[in-house]
């Protein structure tokens, strides 16, 4: 497929091309070792998540068959929650399911990025906050993996009827925002936080209150459901947030020159999204089917301009008309 170019910049002999559809063979995910699927699966299954009814933490087990978002520790809890859950449990049009969230959290480079973005957002590199739950909202969506489809739909060149069987979708992060715990904390979240915090301290053989435990509220686009997951912030992530606070070094692998860009959650989101987007072979298991109905979000009044802004493009370079294998500007320093 030819590259769908949105912007070109000439620098010396090189032309930098920003494209929505990178040329075939271009794959930044080859930068990092891919994680064997069985390792992602094993880690995902070892994750502790909270029961949507009793909020007790348990190992990934029982998921609502209809929406595939709500999780329960037992059939009893699922039954007890149903009178309330039925109002939010529409068969999710958005396709952003619990499995994608837990897979995201099972990929070490993403988990560390989430932790350090969390630490940065709450200023933990300057001052530790240990006595209360900190909560970050993370908006998630599933977008068409082939972005030319998105542009064809938003521009009206095509309609979802052109894709009766749906298309391949991919998980994308849309936004991080810190929430005021005084406002959003409820007994359920407090229980999740207290349990995760206690377990983390037992694991690290330390008195409670020594390490930071946060909560992430994953908001799934197209549903009113929220998945709250604990995040025990590793020391490494605090150190990382301290380093990125001074800006991050984006290195161009062709020109080898480095530029300093101020770090923001958006930098972190953009980088993660681009890695997912360029993972065409789905090593990361963050791709999923996107049914035809889900494509209506790209049509007419349903379009969320903010979400469109967040769609990552891919940068690559050419010299003498030939494409040079390059990579997404990487956050490669100083850590
Ligand atoms: Zn339960
Ligand atoms: Zn459900």
TrEMBL record:
GO terms for molecular function: zinc ion binding. Gene3D superfamilies: 6.10.140.2220. Keywords: Metal-binding, Zinc, Zinc-finger. Residues 51-89 form the MYND-type domain. InterPro entries: Znf_MYND. Pfam families: zf-MYND. It comes from the Eukaryota. This is MYND-type domain-containing protein. The lineage of its organism: Eukaryota, Fungi, Dikarya, Basidiomycota, Agaricomycotina.
């Amino acid at each position: 497929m030819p590259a769908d170019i949105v912007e070109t910049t000439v620098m010396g002999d090189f032309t930098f091309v920003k494209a929505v559809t990178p040329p075939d063979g271009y794959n930044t995910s080859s930068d990092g070792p891919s994680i064997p699927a069985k390792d992602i699966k094993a880690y995902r299954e070892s994750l502790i998540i909270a029961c949507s009814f009793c909020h007790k933490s348990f190992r990934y087990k029982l998921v609502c068959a209809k929406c595939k978002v709500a999780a329960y520790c037992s059939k009893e809890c699922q039954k007890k929650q149903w009178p309330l859950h039925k109002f939010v449990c529409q068969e999710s049009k958005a396709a952003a399911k619990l499995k994608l969230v837990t897979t995201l959290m099972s990929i070490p480079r993403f988990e560390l990025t989430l932790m350090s973005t969390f630490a940065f957002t709450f200023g933990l590199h300057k001052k530790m906050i240990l006595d209360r739950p900190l909560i970050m909202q993370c908006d998630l969506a599933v977008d068409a993996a082939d972005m030319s489809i998105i542009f064809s739909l938003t521009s009206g060149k095509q309609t979802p009827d052109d894709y009766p069987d749906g298309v391949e979708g991919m998980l994308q992060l849309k936004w991080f925002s810190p929430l005021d715990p005084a406002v959003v904390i409820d007994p359920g979240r407090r229980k999740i936080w207290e349990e995760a915090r206690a377990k983390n301290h037992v694991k690290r053989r330390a008195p409670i209150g020594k390490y930071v435990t946060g909560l992430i509220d994953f908001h799934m686009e197209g549903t009113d459901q929220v998945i709250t997951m604990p995040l025990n912030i590793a020391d490494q992530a605090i150190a990382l947030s301290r380093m990125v606070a001074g800006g991050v070094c984006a290195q161009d692998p062709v020109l080898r020159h480095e530029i300093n860009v101020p770090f923001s959650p958006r930098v972190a989101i953009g980088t993660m999204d681009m890695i997912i987007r360029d993972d065409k072979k789905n090593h990361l298991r963050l791709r999923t089917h996107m049914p035809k109905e889900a494509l209506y979000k790209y049509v007419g009044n349903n379009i969320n301009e903010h979400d469109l802004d967040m769609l990552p493009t891919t940068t690559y370079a050419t010299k003498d008309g030939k494409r040079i294998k390059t990579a997404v500007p990487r956050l490669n320093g100083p850590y």
